[in-house]
Amino acid sequence: MNSKLLNKFFLIVLTASLLWACTLQTTPTEPSTTTGTEEILEATAPINATPEEGLTSLVGRVVYPDGKPMANQQMRLAEVYRSETDPEQGAYILDTAFSPGTYSDENGYFVFANIKAMEYIIVLGNPEAVYEITLDENGKAKVWQTEANKVVDIGELVSDFDPTNY
Q1: pTM above 0.85, yes or no
Q2: Cα(36)–Cα(45) distance, rounded to whole angstroms?
Q3: What confidence score (pLDDT) does residue 2 get?
Q4: Which residues is 103 bridged to in the sheet?
């Protein structure tokens, strides 16, 4: 087995086994309001996020706690899988080869276009190096539910993630 495949397999198994016991909580996807500079407020949201038939798109903006955009940030979506016996229990899996990925633009806006409609967790950074899983107010993995044929706007995602600090 080649080392890239072995690393990918290890990452998936490690993530699934460590997080299976974590309780995942779905929270509403209301956009948050953050004040920032006039320049930040004038930035425009991404366009053309309309999904193809049967798919969905997830859009939003990633910013630092001071409201400045997190420009050119690598982002990935990890799929959420729930326990059949207890839907509050589950795991999320990020496949470095196939999980949806994108980068934020210079104003922090991002689009995951034409993805499968399901629950996702957003991962900031490079999942093979330095990354951060977005958390809810309780410190648990934040889960976003998407719907087929709809654009889900999560609003602003505030994070202090900086891969150079690790």
Answers
A1: no
A2: 15
A3: 52
A4: 74
pLDDT at 104: 96
Count of helix runs (H) and strand runs (E) in the chain: 2, 10
Q: 12 and 4 in contact (C-beta within 8 Å)?
A: no
Q: What CATH number does the domain located at 3-32+49-165 have? A: 2.60.40.10
| pLDDT per 10-residue tile (average), the chain, 166 residues | 49 41 37 37 58 95 96 96 89 92 96 96 94 93 95 95 81
What are the residue ranges spanned by the domains of the chain?
3-32+49-165
Q: How far apart are the first and last CA of the chain?
A: 30
Cβ–Cβ < 8 Å for 144, 122: yes
Please, which residues bridge with residue 81 across strands?
91
Report the pLDDT value the prediction gives residue 88, as an integer from 0 to 100: 85
Backbone dihedral region for residue 155 (phi beyond 0: left; psi -120 to 50: alpha; all else: beta): left
- Quote the CA–CA distance of 110 and 75 in Å, as a whole number: 9
Sequence-separated (6 or more) residues with CB below 8 Å from residue 23: 88, 89, 140
Pairing outcome for strands 101-103 and 142-145: unpaired
Residue 28: its pLDDT value, please? Answer: 36
Q: What is the token pair recorded at 140?
A: 């648990």
Distance CA 97, CA 94 (A): 9
